[in-house]
Amino acid sequence: MTPTAPPASATTARPPTTRTEPTARERSSRQVACLATLALALVCLAWELWLAPTGRGTLAIKAVPLLLPLPGLWRYRLYTYRWVSLMIWLYTTEGLVRGTSESGAGMALAWIEVALSLTIFIACAAQIRLRLAEARAADAGSMKDAA
């Protein structure tokens, strides 16, 4: 017995999307995510080194993880947007804890951290949602063309 070849539709690869430029909404969500991430890193550094230092300023190292995703965010890496949207909740939690337990400048900086963290999450979620909707639309279009 000779094996039969699978139907042509099963072996045909999906064509890549023809879109090469990001939409205006994708560009704006990227800019918000990048600027808010950079602002949060600067706030964390200023907070722990000059404005309301805790201890010897060793907590300033918490700003380093915020600098790592900046190249991926700028290059529209979907994977980066996904992990940043999860990682940012650590900063939100720290801001909520310190905002309710500290006073003075530390409390104000904690609430700024919460606001920036939520801004980053919303921008990342918007980017992910826009990109996945675009991929679903392209997939539906390619399936419609194949039928």
UniProtKB/TrEMBL annotation:
The keyword Ubl conjugation does not apply. Keywords: Membrane, Transmembrane, Transmembrane helix. Residues 7-21 have a biased composition (Low complexity). This is DUF2069 domain-containing protein. It comes from Roseateles chitinivorans. The chain crosses the membrane at residues 32-51, 105-126. InterPro entries: DUF2069_membrane. It comes from the Bacteria. Residues 1-26 are annotated as: Disordered.
